[in-house]
Specification:
- With about 450 residues, the chain is α+β, with helices and mostly antiparallel strands.
- Helices cover about 55% and strands about 20% of the residues.
- A six-stranded antiparallel sheet has the order 2-1-6-5-4-3. It has a five-stranded mixed sheet with strand order 8-10-11-13-12.
- A hairpin with a 2-residue loop joins strand 4 and strand 5 (about 125-135).
Length: about 450
Amino acid sequence: MRAPSLFRSLAFRVVVVYVALFSLSTGALVAFTYWNTESALDAETDQVIAAEITGLAEQYQRLGLAGLTDVIISRSVRGNRGLYLLSNKNRRPIAGNLDGWPEVKARVGNFIEFDYQRRVGGELETRRARGRAFALMGGFQLLVARDIHERYETQRLLTTTLPWSVGLMLILGLAGGALMSRNLLTRLDSINDTSHEIMAGDLSRRVPVTGSGDEFDTLATNLNGMLERIERLMRGLREVTDSVAHDLRTPLNRLRNRLEGALMRMRDGPEEAEIEAAVAETDRLIGTFNALLLIAEAEAGVIREAMVPVELPLAVENVAELYAPVAEEKGIALEIAPAGQVEIDGNKSLISQALANLIDNAIKYTPPGGHVRVAIDETPDGVALSVADDGPGIPSDDRKRVLDRFVRLEASRNSPGTGLGLSLVAAVARLHGAKLQLADNAPGLKAVLLFPFAVR
């Protein structure tokens, strides 16, 4: 199994979350700073306007309308940021530096914002102002304002560029995250590829160390040390297995041969039944020993190097031919479903042994007159080798437990067997990267070995 794709990797997701939080926090900080600055500038402008209004009100009370008009004309020609307009009840201009009563663009409390036109360098320019208007006695109207065009342009520029800045920050962050994730995934792919080869049985493989001294090199060094230890343990297991096979299997076979020889010399003797029972027990002991040894070798991957292309229909035909007489003797129909040419990568003897165990169990627990069906089907997930019977089946709660060693569901244990059949099948499945599935055949049990497709 390779590392996840770039956009599903943890490194990329961490970078995306970090960039998103950084962009949002930066945008929020800039927006908050600008809002505070804008509020402070507005308050300052409003204070200046309020002070001018106070001064003009004093002039109006002391000098009247004529005096107010002179003051407004005097202030209008100074060329500062102050804007003034005194108009009659019909809003016709009397004095000031505004050509007419403006159209209000925004209203903030008692203050208004509006656009006006002013000549700058001989050209007419539209600018933004902020002010306050109120009525005088006699229906006259007075507008006092300040030019805030520079601040308005800054605000408009900020509100336009801030989303683009956040978007650009996100894009650059995602690009950087993709680059960082790609570098991390390259290192992870090398570790995953090595792990896959080790799981395939090549215990001599080691995780590459780049020499950079980073965390991945530390991890690779620790993994290589662990692999060295595992390889030594597996080598010891292989040596122990070979020793057990040599020291126990041969004496057991010799014991059986001597018992058979004694049985042949003791025809019709009183000890004949006891010797026959001893031979049967010896056969059972040898079968148990061979099954345990085969399970240990399969789980340890000792015989993984014997993987070759296997014609699955031919293997099924050979095993079914061996069990056909047993099924016929018990009155059970053994059916082999027709299949085309299907090839998988595996150990032929182990696959045959696993299939033999499944067919043997199916025949053993199917009542006379029943039916056992062996089929090969190509599915989207792989090649399915199934054995289905009409027996009592296995309760769903026990289907996982029966894959353990020496587990038999019969409390009395009257039927022959050691409880190692399905355990061996499960070990063979793990060795081949296959899945063993036990399902209800309604009635009976359907055991399915789902092998991966052959790699070519």
